[in-house]
Every structure is written in structure tokens, then in C-alpha cells.
Amino acid sequence: MRAVHCPIEIAGQMGILCNGLNRLGVTSAAFNTFHTYLGYRDYLHNVDVYEIEYLFHDLLEHFDVFHFHYAATLLQGSADLPLLERQAKKMVMHHWGNDVRTHAIASISNPYVYTGDSPPADQIDKTLRHLSKFIKHAIVQDYEVYPYVAPYYDNIHVLPIAFDTDTKVPKYPDIQVSNPLIIHAPTNPLFKGTKFIEEALEKLREEGVSFRYQRVEKMSNAEAVALYQEADIVIDQVLCGSYGMLAVESMSLGKPVIGFIRDDLLLKFPEIPPILSANPDEVYDVIKEVIQNPRLRVEAGQRGRAYVEKHHSTAVVTNQLTDIYKQL
Amino acid sequence: MAYLTAEEHDLNNHIAVCSCGYPPTDAVNRMWTKEILRPYVYYLHNQQAIDHMFGGLLFETDMTGKGGQLSARSIGFGVPDDLEDWQQVGAHLFVPEHNISAALELSRDLCTHTLDIWVALPYPFAHNHSSDTRDLARDVFWRTDRIKWWIARFFDEWKAACTAVSDHRARLCGFAWTKSSLAPNDDLVIRDVSEFIHESGFKLFWCHNFGTTGATNVTELGFDFAFTRATYTGIEPRGIEWIRYTAAFAAHYHTGMTIWGEQRFSPYHALDFLNMGNESFKQAFQLYELPFRAVYDWYCETNPMYVYLYAYLKQAFTKIVYPGCSYE
Q1: Which tens digits make up the pLDDT trace of B279-307?
Q2: A41 to chain B, minimum CA–CA distance in Å?
Q3: Binary contact (B76, A77; C-beta < 8 A)
Q4: CA distances from B131 to A42, A167, B136, B138, B144 (A)
Q5: Residues of B in contact with A41 (CB under 8 A)
Q6: What is the ipTM of this complex?
């Protein structure tokens, strides 16, 4: 089996999954046409859409499984899908959230959610209708994303975010630290609720609570991860209602993570994630508690590391992915 | 501005790409013999050379037998290249009576003309599977060094081949960079490599796609000139107009044009380019990317494409309308 991942790299996932698949003996390659300052380079080929068009027929001949990401495929307007279908190629679409999240659905369960990064609802609908005409299987990372695509695809698989836990040595918070370093890394401050987080931090600072704060932005993922290693507390997001790559990376490093996890989703994860949940109304109290309770920081860090090893390690996730491939 | 012409660089127009080695999608080692190359170098009628045909040949090795990726076209289809792969490229190009050696022998009978020989540089993939390459400066040095080493070896092999065919009428003109999109720091590698090539009295050109970032800065990057390829798929928004847009770009930015014949899109794919070329860019400097030995097969099968191509090269082509032709 040969699998190709393309065309949009989100949170390093195409590269990580390909590396994991190759280790399992599934020949895989990832082509990324979405280039950002995050600078993902590992186990993927950074190209542009025109190179994909140039390579199109070679890709078609060489690969059996087409694993698409972020509601995009090989050719503009997903014009490749009829050709792939005609050749009986196996296809799966991996949706990541902002590509399908509509405010109408998201706001049913979450009054805080920000959907300004998503395309307009009618465009999402049109895209999903077209994609699902040819692609019968979709993958989502959790049950927060699930309902956006549920009306469209015949089969939806939940596959957790993958992370190379083996390559990260946890560095648990030092229980002796009295002014912990808090890190928040908003790739999009509106989506992450940075305003609420920083307002809470400002209030705490005015009250004389001792902590250090670093906002990590506009640097490569490799540089950012190096900074996370020094953190005592990581704040992911307080609006979305689920957790993403920053939380997984941080838990892997043994850091306590604050983020908003919707109550109705808690039992839908394979086990309740050890994330210190805080929505905008709660974030001040939760941050204060974590700052003032170093033992909590260490315990949350240890539980986070165990959680990602169990549910997010590349080997665990790619084993699940190969099972999905067998169902295509 | 106007299209780039071959004359302004004192070069022969109409360069045929001779892809060799293993292709991305097959296990056949492509070798160019004198017999296969003959209808490329000479216009043949009943086995007799009536005229000369292409003015230059560009040899490019895609992959080695063990799957080492060497060309832009092989990205993602093989395994990361190593030193042995790079050594094999040189050896492969000069196999006695094949590839460049065959071209040298064939050129003997060119009475009043010379045959321009171009060689595609193997692409120096950044080996991002090692954490060492986080150090991009070291990565640039390593990649630049590898290319210079390879070119120096190539010069030695070229001299030896020329000595063996002392009465050849070919001239080595330089090298091609065939990766269209530029990876981070490729620009630094290219500048250094181009200086090295220029010091030896040769040229370096770039094969890029219309739309590729940086395609408006050809000479600033260190290239002598460039050929622009329309990634024409025949499917909107990459229909026939895409070739016209590409031609307009080439005229404005003073590049040559690539004639791309990808028969897996359509048996008339190359003919569409000739028709569009006849409309606008027929006098531009042109590069022809046709399937392996396609011109030989056309000649042997008395396929009219052979005559069309000859007519096009000689500026005597008139538009060919075929069944289902979608444009005026």
C-alpha cells in the first residue's frame, strides 16, 4: 500500500503521520502547498500547487491511497476527484476544524466559540457536498469537529492528533518555582481567546500574584517548542471547547495545560483529558489556582504526559490510521 | 519586454528534455541510444536525415535503481538520496554509447550545426530527517558543496567522453535547475552554484511553473534565464487559457516557454502547446518536455506529430484542429 498525503499541512500532522506510516511499512509521502512561518519541514515535501499539477499523473499512478487534508485535494476546485474515482483510488478527507466549522452548529454547544477563520457557511456546504460526492470516508480529530461533517460523509473516523512523544523528553515543572513561567502561543489570537487570557493575567498581576508571562508568536514550530520546554504552565485556548496541537505538544513535554474543554465532550475522548478546563468566565480562577498550587502543576504535567503517550503517540495513531485505510 | 530568444544568448533554440534513469512510476531504466536520439537530432524521412531537428538536449536523471530521489520530478516517489546516488548520476549520463555519449556520437554528422548539451543538476534535497538540518546555514553549505562536487566530477567525465569522440559537434552549454518552487534557502544555494558555473564559462537556467513564487526574479536569483511552464491540465481553471496567460507572463518577464506533452492528460496535450505557440510564442526560446522517446516512437509509427513538431521547429507550422478541440 502506498499512501500520499496532501496538500495542506496543519500542525505538522501530514509529516508525522507519514513518518509513522513508513515505520509501519506503509510507503507514504506528504506534499505541502501551504507555507507559513511555522516552517514545518519534517517528513514532508514542501511544494506549490503548480508542482502538484505537474506531478499529478505520476501521483495518480504511484499511490493507492489519497489522504487529503483541510478540504483540499490535488487539483484546483477538486477537479481531480472524478479521475481518482474512475481509477478506483482509495480516498479519505481529513478535516481539521476551521475548514468546516460553521457558527450555526458550533454555537449550539458553545457560546464562546470563534468561527471567524472559517469560510462562509454556504461555501463550506458547497465544498463538503462536492467532496463527499466522491469521497466516502472522512477523518476528524475529535467529536468537536465531528458534527460539522456528519451530514455529508458515509463514514467518519475519529483519529487523535499524532505526536512523536519519543522525541520529547518531559521536563516537569519545578515545584520550588514561586513565579511560574506561563506561555501562550496564539497562531490566531481571536480563535484562541488571547484577549480573555491576557485580561485575566493582567488582573492577576495587578493583584500582585507572582508569575512570568511569554506570548509566543511568529516563530517556527521548532523554535516555539524549545520555548515550551521552559514553561511551568501552558495556556492553549479558552474558546474552542476542545484541544489542539499546542496542548498535545505541551502535555508531551510534561507541562500543565489550561484550555477550554466542553463538558459535553469530556466523555467522548478515549479518557478524560487531563487539561485544566477554563472558559473565558473561568480562566482567571483557573490560572490563579495553577499559579498558586505548584503540586497541581506537577501532577497535571505528569498526567498529561501519560495521556499523550497513551492516545497521541505516533505509533498508536498510525496503527489506527492503517485500520482506517483498510476500510476505504 | 518580449520573449526570451536563444539568439540573445548565442544558443540553439529548441531543447528537448531527455529524462533518463528510473522514472517515478516505473521500474525501467531509461537509456537513450543513438537510434532513439537520432530523430531528435535529425529530421528523418525514410531513415534519411533530411534536416537537423532539436538544437539542444537536456539530460536529466530522475531516480537511481535503488530509488534515490534526484530530480524535482522524483520528489516523494523514492527514498532520500545519498552520495552513491549522486555518483551514479554521472556514471549513468556517460554510459558508453548511451545518453550523452550517444549524443556526442550522433552529433558527428551535423555538418554546419552544433548540438547544445545541457544537464539538469540533481536537486540537493534538504535531508530533514535529521535534527542536524535545523541548522539551515550548515544545510546550505552542505547542499552547495554537494552540487559543486558533482559538477566538478561531471566536467571530468565530459572531457573524457569528448576525448573518446574527438570529432563530435556538440558543445556543453551548462546546467538546469529543474525544481520549480524554491525551498527555504534554495536561493542561497542557487547564487553560490551559479557563480561556480559562471566561473567555468557555462550557464544555468531555471525551469519554473507559471505562478511559482520568485519567477519574476530570475536573474536576481543567479540564473541566466528561465523557461516558464504552463501547468495545463485541460481542466478548468487550467484550461487552454492557462497557456495563454503563461505566454503573456513569459513575454512580460522575458522568459522562454516550455512545451509540455503529458499524454496522460490527453493525446493532444503537446499539440495544444504547439497550437498556442503558433499563436504567440513560436519564436521564443523553448524547452520540450515530452514522454521518454516519444519523438522516436512518433517517427517509427509515422505519427503526424513528428511532422507537426518538425514544422513547428522550423516556423512552418499551422494550427492543427483535432476532433474535440475545444478552442478556436
Answers
A1: 999 999 999 999 999 999 999 999 999 99
A2: 6
A3: no
A4: 9, 11, 11, 12, 19
A5: 126, 128, 133
A6: 0.95
